[in-house]
Amino acid sequence: MNLSLIDPFILAQDYPEALTGKIHGTIVIFDVETNGIARKLRGHTRQIQALSWSRDGRFLLSSSQDWKCILWDLQDGARLRSVRFEAPVYIAELHPTNHLLFVASLFEDQPRLVDISGLTPVKRHLPSAPRRSRVDGIDQNEKQAAQDAKHSTCVTIFTADGHHIITGTNRGWLNIIDTESCEIVHSIKLCSGFIIFLRLTASGRDMVSNASDRVIRTVPIPYLSRVQAQNDSLKIEVEHKFQDVVNRLSWNHVTFSSTGEYVAASTYMNHDIYVWERSHGSLVKILEGPKEELGIVEWHPHRPFVAACGLETGRIYLWSIITPQRWSALAPDFAEVEENVEYIEREDEFDIHPIEEIHKRRLDLEDEAVDVLTMDPIKSEVEEESFSMPVLLDIGDSESEDEIVAVGPGTMRRKSPGEGREWMNGTESEESGEDRLSTKKSTVNGTLKSQSKTRKR
Hints:
Layout: H1 2-6, H2 8-12, E1 19-21, E2 26-30, E3 37-42, E4 48-53, E5 59-64, E6 68-73, E7 78-84, E8 89-94, E9 101-106, E10 112-115, E11 122-125, H3 142-149, E12 153-158, E13 164-169, E14 173-178, E15 184-189, E16 195-200, E17 206-211, E18 216-220, H4 226-229, E19 240-242, E20 251-256, E21 262-267, E22 273-277, E23 282-287, E24 294-299, E25 305-310, E26 316-320, H5 327-330, H6 355-366, E27 404-408, E28 411-414, H7 433-456
Antiparallel strand pairs: 1-2, 2-3, 4-5, 5-6, 6-7, 8-9, 9-10, 10-11, 12-13, 13-14, 14-15, 16-17, 17-18, 18-19, 20-21, 21-22, 22-23, 24-25, 25-26, 27-28
């Protein structure tokens, strides 16, 4: 127990590349190994609301307050599809197996199930009013029907197999909707307030919810076959309730660890991240660090790694464990021993070699071609083929934290807020920077030539 209080990551050891969206609509993908910018995606004009990866990691769905959802291909950063709605988008999520199908929650409107496999997107409306069971009564009065009409969906997610959609309403109801028929097959009252966020584990067997009543709930999800889902006797019960009883804190965002054994949440008007374990339902760690409020918090799918985004500065904060140094990784013949052992040297171990021979060996090693571009596949427990995003090696594609640019030899200045964002207003010139530079040089040279001819005359 004391070990878990000191550092729960030591017990977990299992916690995307990380990615974030800016206020002006730019999506930035960071490389976890180098902490550098791997790619930038520009297509939105307002704040990014949600990002959803495909299962193979190649496709990314972004939703924004500009009423659009864009599907990106991370192989080359191209926009495959762009769908515009009639209202701002709360959150959108890709289908687990079909990246051309996604579900979106809209502001003050019914959610949509969108199929973008064709040239024209097909939008299907999803219901928000809960399905009343036979136990509640077959005849529904007018008062009950009027109350059900006030339900609106706040969040939508797919199940692990993609056969069903789980939605949360502003009245605290969970609706399970069949993906093919778009009809509610089961409903359950989860809380009294509105449901803010839902998240499933990688296996899809457990779900965590964040609601306006300041309580985080974990719910085991049974196997939702078609026969069981349409059965009114299907029971979905809350497993644990996590809350701050003393301070009565609200929660901005919640997430699972990679195995689902831990739950992490960022706090409203606070700068801490709370970590609970699900086996006993107890708080094991409070992650401290920045002095600003944190919004989205995510747990790495394979490593003991937690990332959170600051709401004031937009910085990405990372928490991880300190791994011990392994000297055997630097020198393969290095062996770590617990106790001193007697060392017997070899006969030719400390022989003095001629300088010419040593120099020749160094030249032979320099002639070997070193491949620094090929990326070796990462060994993982998942046997399915995973996509590896190309890394941009051009340093010009990156940007510094303070947006500092060079304007001359030894002269630096801060980048203006609107510089490099002409694409947002549609006034971006087709002329590249090199063409402008060459045009400028030719103009200067032409001016100098005309002045020299005038002097000769």
